[in-house]
Amino acid sequence: MKVAIMGYGTIGSGVAEVLRINQDQIQRKVGEPIELKYVLDRNEIAGEDHDKLVLDFNIIAEDPEVGLVVETMGGIHPAYEFVKASLEKGKHVVTSNKALVDAMGSKLISIAKEHNCNFFFEASVGGGIPVIRTIYHNYAGEKLTEITGILNGTTNYILTKMRDSGASFEDTLHEAQKLGYAERDPSADIDGFDTSRKTAILLSMASGNRCRHEDIYTEGIRNVSAIDVEYAKFLGMNIRLLGSVQVVEDKYFAYVAPIMITKNDPLYPVDGVFNGIRIVGNCLGTTMLYGMGAGKLPTASAVVSDMIAAVRHQHEFQGIGWSEKMIDIEPMGSNAFNYLVRIEGTPDDVANEVKDLFLNDTTAFHPIVLDGRTDEFAVMTDVMFESDFKENMKEFEEKTGRRVFHFLRAELGKD
Predict the structure, then answer these.
(1) Mean pLDDT on 148-177
(2) Residue 373 pLDDT > 80, yes or no?
(3) What is the pLDDT of residue 235?
(4) Whose CA is closest to 120, among 373, 339, 313?
């Protein structure tokens, strides 16, 4: 099958490289060669593919030899228009573009079905981690109750480095930028929007219907301080930016936020730029996917895997995806957590208020005081709905005159 790659940046050039490196194995897998015919890019390209460069998308759209288009341009426009036109010509499309899949995925899946071709997007969520195909194929007989993951390597690197070095968020971010792990404008990563788009795709897969990442509560890691990390270390916990989807009966819960997790959580040891995804099924229980969530060749490998699937199923629509029906996501206040609450001053004279507002009758008041600190202490609450916790936190400040400096959500019972 002849292939066109749209966008020859890190991922697009990686796809071409994987096709060359593993060409013999790929041909054995699919029974025919996958041959790169065109590269669409605005810039001149060097190397082996320079003679394949085209500047006009219509050359790809109108070439009947091209049966498969790879979209690695990024962004929504003109990627959407090019992908839509390709599908309408009956060409299979593979993409790594999470923004496109989140915003337009249901429409493109519908168009693919109408024209009996496929729209595959494995690399849009976990880079080299095969989570989409795992959910669709391997867990087809499961009722999924939860998908929670560390879905962004930049934020995971920053939080890991803060834990290991004791450095501030700002200093660690600057180091990540120097090393190339964070962009010059890191807001999409550190403010959680990258994770939010990936979480929306996972929720759409789990529910079979569409959701928007704008409807998912999203909180990044800008406000995670070195002191927060110190408390987590004291408690033997890690802080991780999690994207989480939970299904309870017919209700859908989703959020993106920094969460403290214990050593019993399979996500606990996922450090550095690695990603991990915890999946819970009603019969299977808890499983874990782990690997490189980004990077040139790992992501390109996932794209090529989709390309192989497209060639194998070139005469039939596979149906990976979701409908255009929108689902409602429960408000963040409906989620329940433990909370680490950092309180001004010393524990003296506020034990009763802490117990009344943050602990139940059977939980003893055990303040957490870090060595050398007399300006604040912390307490770990019992499990509370977020709406109740925030009301009680406000009441605590009004009753005691003590400020709550910061709080972190915690999951103490995951395993």
Answers:
(1) 97
(2) yes
(3) 98
(4) 313
Pairing label, strands 53-54, 35-40: parallel
Task: Match 């998912």 to its residue by tokens.
Answer: 216
State which H helix or E strand residue 170 sits in: helix 169-179
d(CA 177, CA 190): 12
pLDDT tens per residue, range 101-138? 999 999 999 999 999 999 999 999 998 999 999 999 99
Q: Are 120 and 101 in contact (CB under 8 A)?
A: no
Ranges of each domain in the chain: 2-127+298-312, 133-292, 333-411
pLDDT for 415 equals 60
Determine which of 147-151, 157-161, 196-200, 290-294 has the lowest per-residue pLDDT on average.
Answer: 290-294
Contacts of 377 (CB under 8 A, 6+ apart): 342, 343, 345, 346, 347, 367, 368, 369
Element (H, E) at 301: helix 296-312
Phi and psi of 93, rounded to 5°?
Answer: -130, 135
The stretch 216-241 carries a mean pLDDT of 98
Mean pLDDT of the chain: 96
Q: How many CA atoms lie within 13 A of 125 on its CB side?
A: 31
Answer whether 287's CB lies under 8 Å from 146's CB.
no
Q: For the domain made up of 133-292, give the CATH fold.
A: Dihydrodipicolinate Reductase; domain 2 (3.30.360)
Query: What pLDDT does residue 295 have?
Result: 87
2-127+298-312 and 333-411 have identical folds: no
Number of residues that make up the chain: 415
Tokens of residue 338, six digits: 């433990």
Establish how many alpha carbons lie within 13 A of residue 325's alpha carbon, considering only the half-sphere containing its beta carbon: 6
pTM of the predicted model over 0.70: yes
Mean per-residue pLDDT, 249-274: 96
Residues catalogued as catalytic: 198
- Contacts of the segment 392-398: beta carbons below 8 A, 24+ positions apart: 392/357, 392/358, 393/341, 393/357, 395/357, 396/343, 396/350, 396/353, 396/354, 396/357, 396/358
The CATH class of the 333-411 domain is alpha beta
Q: What is the average pLDDT across 205-230?
A: 96
Q: Which helix (H) or strand (E) holds 28?
A: helix 23-30
Which CATH number applies to 2-127+298-312: 3.30.365.10, 3.30.465.10, 3.40.50.720, 3.40.50.12160?
A: 3.40.50.720
> Taking CA 51 as the corner, what is the angle to CA 46 and CA 55, rounded to the nearest 5 degrees?
90
